[in-house]
Amino acid sequence: MDITKLTPMHDRMQWYVDQNILPHVFSLVMKGTDIVDYRCFGYMDIETQEPLREDAIFRVFSNTKIVTSVAALMLVEQGLLKLDAPISELLPAFAAPQVLIHDATSIDQVEAAASPITLRHLLSHSAGFSYGFVDPESLIDAHYLGNGLDILTGFDGTLENMCDTLATFPLVFQPGTDWRYSLATDVVARLIEVVSGLSFDAFLKQRIFDPLDMLDTGFCVSEDKLHRIPAMYVPNDLLNPMGSGLTLLSPVGAPNYLTAPKWLSGGGGLLSSVSDYVRFLQMILNEGRHNDVKLLEPSTIAQMHQNQLAPNIDVQFPMWNLPATKFGLGFAVKDAPEDGEPQGAIGEYHWGGLAGTHSWISPDTGITGFCGTQVMPAFWHPFSHDFKRMAYEAC
After folding, report:
1. Contact by Cβ (8 Å): 358, 368
2. Which of 156, 166, 170, 244 lies 20 to 30 A from 133 at CA?
3. Would you say residue 46 lies in a domain?
4. Residue 231 domain-assigned?
5. Within this chain, do residues 241 and 379 fall inside the same structural domain, yes or no?
């Protein structure tokens, strides 16, 4: 790859900072497993204009889901979890799920589930759970928000507590019949605790983070690393992601990150640095290996980015458009290129976090990208689309 061809992408990322649309951006491009470009733009916080550190530690939110998926699949390979066994064998609270009937107008309009919830459903978000904040005016999300699962304001309980609460709510569709973004990956985290006998954070540290030398990744940081967490902002106009103007949401080194929360969210709780998360991506690219460490078999990695959804089902959000997108065991999978992308984008697998971290892997082109900021919300933000499109143009 001719690195000079990435200059337009660099200029575009800097433009987002100059226009006060984003406080900072990092962009990283790999060819194969080799890093060919890594740049930081903007500031740790706008007020002091301290430059964004190369070793900054980011709130990666739903990038956590890919880590949790890998952890669960490691236990599948060990024979401790099964993809198609009812999760109620390990979590009895889910033994008799109820499902909202079609066009229900009341939360008590339910029918029995026709089939049990499985780990495959959880990893592909086809179990029938919801999230609460994604579609807050819907019947099911309003029920989540009003009955103890308003996770954006913080859930004051453990993974076990969360599962016990979640199990009392109806599913929004029959297991395996549709797709809905949800707390399913947090249920996966609880399954990992049950079969491993370890707390979720301890399992990740022992089985993934320490072997991969991901020394900056976890649910909290030590005091000497606190200053490496950038400030997080919210747009002044929540309905216009390209609008200028930001308001501080969380300062640099907010002290709440010094201790791990009770709720060790497998769906969105991790902090990580670029160098750490790149090691994790390199393991994915190397079909489950990184240097002398083997976490998964190549066939298992392949399943992570093979469609697991029922026929004619696509990934859909009420506020974001992800055209021609399916879902595997942890990754979204692209069936067609978006505007400005090459045919080689077909088969790309990806996911990101609510505050703007996003990673993607393109098997056909051999290009991998990782970009990020800290703005709520910025999951499907134009800056990450520009980064991806312009990285493809340069390859």
Report:
1. no
2. 244
3. yes
4. yes
5. yes
As beta bridge partners, residue 350 has 332, 360
Half-sphere exposure of 243 (CA within 13 A, CB side): 11
pTM greater than the 0.90 cutoff: yes
Helix (H, G, I), strand (E, B) or coil at 197: coil
Write the single-letter amino acid at 225.
K
Amino acid at residue number 31: K
Give the CATH number for residue 254: 3.30.450
Residue 89 pLDDT level (bands cut at 50, 70, 90): very high
Average pLDDT, rounded, for the chain: 96
Q: Which one, of 117, 114, 83, 113, lies nearest residue 99 by Cα?
A: 113
Cβ(379)–Cβ(352) below 8 Å = yes
CA 336 to CA 392: how far, in whole Å? 14
Exposure string of 148-184, with b = 16+ CB inside 10 Å and e = fewer, is bbebeeebebbbeebbebbbebbbbbbbbbbbbbbbb
How far apart, in Å, are the Cα atoms of 94 and each of 116, 130, 183, 386?
A: 8, 15, 14, 42
Q: Say if residues 64 and 268 touch (Cβ distance below 8 Å).
A: yes
* pLDDT at residue 154, as a whole number: 81
- DSSP class of 170: P
Structural domain count of the chain: 2
What gap in Å lies between CA 135 and CA 131, rounded to an integer? 8
